[in-house]
C-alpha cells in the first residue's frame, strides 16, 4: 500500500517544502528529531503566555518592556488563547481529535469585536548581533531605517531598508583571530578579493577585508585621552596619582598641559616615581572612575586621534613591546577594562588575539589576560618611553584581512538583514566590527503564508466577520509586525491558494529527498554518524 500524508498542519506543510523525504521520515515513519533547547524554551514561553491570557498567571517577567502597552490593550480584548481548530476535507469545523480531521491549525491568540477579528502569533526573537553606530552599539533587532552605522572604510552611512524577520538555517562563522558572528544562510559577505558571496558559498581559508578606523567627530573630553589611558593602567585607583618607571612619560604628560606634584613614592615603589596630577582626581570622580577603572563610553566615541591617544596611554602603562614578533601586547586583569580595550582596538581597525598567561610589572608576576596585536601601517601603539623607541624599529604591520577558520551550523533560527546607502554596500557588525554586506534577498514568504492561513481559519470560524488583522509579536525584543489586512471577500482566494499548496504534499507518494541548504542542519543526516536519508 502506497503511504501518503493524510492530514496536515502549517508545520507539516513548511517541513515538506524544505524536504519531502524528511517530512516522510517524521510524519509517516514516525522518526523523532531530538528536542532542542530552543524548542523547549519556545514551548515554555507559549505556555506562560497562555496562562497569562487565561488569567492563571501574571504577565511573564521576561516580556520586553516596550510591549507592556500592547499587552494591556490585548488583554482588554479578552482573546481566546492557544486556540486549536480542525477542519475536514470540506473545510467544515470538526473536533481536534475527530477521525476526519484533515487540517489542524493552532492560533496563539484570537479576539473578535463585532465584525472584526484580530489574530496574533507569538515569536521568540534572538536578533542579538551588535551593530556599531555613532551613538554606541545597537542590536540588529533594535536598528531602524534612518539610523547611522559604519561602512568598511569607517564612514557613517544610513540604514535604508530592513527585512522582515526570517526563519532560516543559521551558522556561526569563526575567524582565525577569534572573532565570531552568527548569520543566516542567505547573508552576503564582502570578500577580500572583491567578490560578494552568501554564507552557503563560504569556505574555510577565505578572507574578508579588515575594517578601517570608524570616523567620529572630536569629543569634548574632561581628561586628555592619553592621561586617562595611562591612569587606567598605572594610576592609583583612589586618586589622581600616576606611577611611572621613567621620566619620559611624565614629561610627555606635562607637555599635554598637566601639572604634577613631587615624587611621593615610598620604599615599595623603588625606582618608580609616583606623582599626583593636579585636578585629575576631581575629573576622575565626575566620570565615576575612582575605585571603578573602566573606559567611559564617551572615550570610545571620540575621534580617531582621540581613541589612538587613549590606546597609547594604555599601552605606555600596561603594554609591552614584543621585539621578536614586532607586536604590541596589553596585559590586565580587569575584565571590564579588557572588554572595552578590545572594542577600542576594533574601532581603530586593529585585529588582535587574546590569551591568558603570566605577566610581570612593578616587581610582581601575576596571571593576566594578554591581548596581542600589530598596528596598521602609519599608526603607533606607544607614544613615549623605551617601548615607543623599540616600536620605531619595527617593519611588520597588521594584515588588512581576516581569514575564515570554521563554519558551524546552528540549526533553524530567526534573523534580519539591513541595507545601507554606502557606495560599498557594506556595514560593520559585532563588537569586532566585522565587514559584511547588504543582503539582496528579502525572504518573507514563510510568515506571509502562516498569516494567510490564520486569516483563512478565522474566516471559516466566523462567517459573519468582515475584516481580519494578523500580527506577529516578537516577545524577546519588543517588536510587532503587522501582516496584511484581509476582508471577507478574500476567503475563496485563500481557500484556492491553500488547496493548491497542500494538494501536492497530500498526493505525493515518492517523497523525494531534496538536497538543499537545510541538509547541513538535518539531524537525520547526522544521527549516529550515518545518513538516514538518501540526500546527496
Description of the structure:
With 536 residues, this protein is α+β, with helices and mostly antiparallel strands. It is 27% helix and 28% strand. The chain has 14 helices and 26 strands. The strands form eight sheets. Strands 1, 2, 3, 4, 24, 25 and 26 form a seven-stranded mixed beta sheet that branches. Helix 5 (225-234) packs parallel to helix 9 (304-318). It is elongated and about 95 Å long. The chain starts with 9 loop residues before the first helix and ends in a 10-residue tail after the last helix. Residues 440-446 have low confidence and may be disordered.
Topology:
Layout: H1 10-18, H2 20-27, H3 37-53, H4 68-76, E1 80-87, E2 93-94, E3 103-113, E4 116-123, E5 130-133, E6 136-139, E7 148-150, E8 156-162, E9 166-175, E10 180-184, E11 188-190, E12 196-198, E13 207-209, H5 225-234, E14 241-244, H6 247-255, E15 273-276, H7 280-286, H8 297-300, H9 304-318, E16 319-322, E17 327-332, H10 335-347, E18 353-361, E19 364-373, H11 386-391, E20 401-415, E21 418-420, E22 426-429, E23 434-437, H12 445-461, E24 467-474, E25 479-482, E26 486-487, H13 491-506, H14 523-526
Parallel strand pairs: 4-24
Antiparallel strand pairs: 1-2, 1-3, 3-4, 5-6, 7-8, 8-21, 9-10, 9-20, 11-12, 13-20, 14-15, 16-17, 17-19, 18-19, 22-23, 24-25, 24-26
